[in-house]
Specification:
Blueprint: H1 2-12, E1 58-59, E2 78-80, H2 120-126, H3 134-146, E3 156-159, H4 162-173, E4 177-180, E5 183-185, E6 193-203, E7 209-213, E8 221-224, E9 229-238, E10 245-253, H5 261-267, E11 275-279, E12 284-288
Antiparallel strand pairs: 1-3, 2-11, 3-8, 4-12, 5-10, 6-9, 7-8, 7-12, 9-10, 10-11
Length: about 290
């Protein structure tokens, strides 16, 4: 399960990624945030899906382990659960604002090609993305990531609309869901956040469906129902300017024995202890409606 969760973070490339704005249509959508090797090379798999999706809004996915990568996670987003305390300082310049993913199509575009790897050439042409560019590589990776319909370790979906994400969350949680998301307060983000007094509130009681944006030129969310996680709403204020702050959503993974040692070295922790990450603005966390009292 840990390998599944971490590969999701690697593919999404946004959980701890830096906010970037690109003026051209060929630059990457974002920085791969969790680009480390979390399983022995002998366990790595380059298996690719074989059956393209039918282009519907909700698409199931398949995992494969990427090769060894350089660690790119940022301390401001990734942290140890034992440090989720009142008064805790986040690193300077931690950004919880949304990741900008520019879209390249006319104001009144025709319907895009169906979401399927078999339509890659048409998709690149529709969004004016140069074949062979970094952005084209990311689009291809996303299409491959979402196209398989074989059974996986945990319930998951690639959702092209928020409604599709909500319907998946309802089925995965077995009840009516409600979305929680990070909200930035004030005119911008402070140089440094601090956790406010009595600022940590547990939400969802372990029943959560996180949804992460995927690198794609149109809205696309990867949603999954992980096990052994806890979610929190965290009130953050600016250390020097209390008028700035955020209500941030954090998800903590309790079983991390299979995670790469580099994470714990970076965080000054011990392999196996709970690790958390904040969810920036563009992310959604679905929980049972009855459990969310924000």
């Amino acid at each position: 399960m840990a390998t599944t969760i971490l590969f999701a973070l690697f593919v999404l490339g946004f959980v701890a990624g830096e906010q970037q704005i690109y003026g051209d249509s060929d630059g990457p959508f974002g920085v791969a945030a969790y680009g480390v090797n979390w399983s022995p090379p002998s366990r790595a798999s380059a298996t690719l899906p074989h059956s393209p999706s039918d282009g519907k809004a909700a698409l199931r996915t398949k995992w494969c382990n990427p090769p060894r990568q350089q660690l790119k996670a940022k301390k401001g987003i990734l942290f140890l659960q034992r440090n989720l305390l009142d008064g805790a300082l986040l690193p300077a310049n931690t950004e919880l604002g949304h990741i900008h993913t520019p879209q390249n199509f006319p104001r009144s575009p025709p319907a895009p090609p169906p979401f399927a790897y078999s339509n890659l050439k048409n998709i690149l042409a529709f969004y004016n993305i140069t074949r062979g560019s970094e952005r084209a590589r990311q689009v291809a990776a996303t299409l491959r990531f979402c196209r398989d319909d074989q059974q996986q370790e945990e319930p998951h979906v690639c959702a092209a609309t928020q409604r599709a994400a909500m319907e998946f969350a309802a089925a995965a949680l077995g009840t009516t869901p409600r979305a929680a998301r990070t909200v930035i307060h004030g005119r911008g983000e402070p140089v440094r956040y601090v956790v406010a007094p009595n600022g940590v509130t547990s939400i969802g009681r372990g029943k959560v469906v996180p949804c992460h944006p995927l690198p794609y030129p149109a809205d696309l969310l990867y949603c999954h129902r992980p096990g052994n996680v806890q979610a929190f709403s965290v009130e953050l204020v600016g250390q020097e300017d209390p008028s700035l702050g955020a209500t941030a959503i954090a998800v903590c993974h309790e079983k991390t024995d299979g995670w790469a040692l580099e994470y714990f070295e970076m965080l000054n922790g011990t392999r196996g202890e709970p690790v958390c990450h904040y969810m920036p603005e563009k992310y959604l966390l679905w929980v049972p409606a009855a459990e969310l009292k924000l």
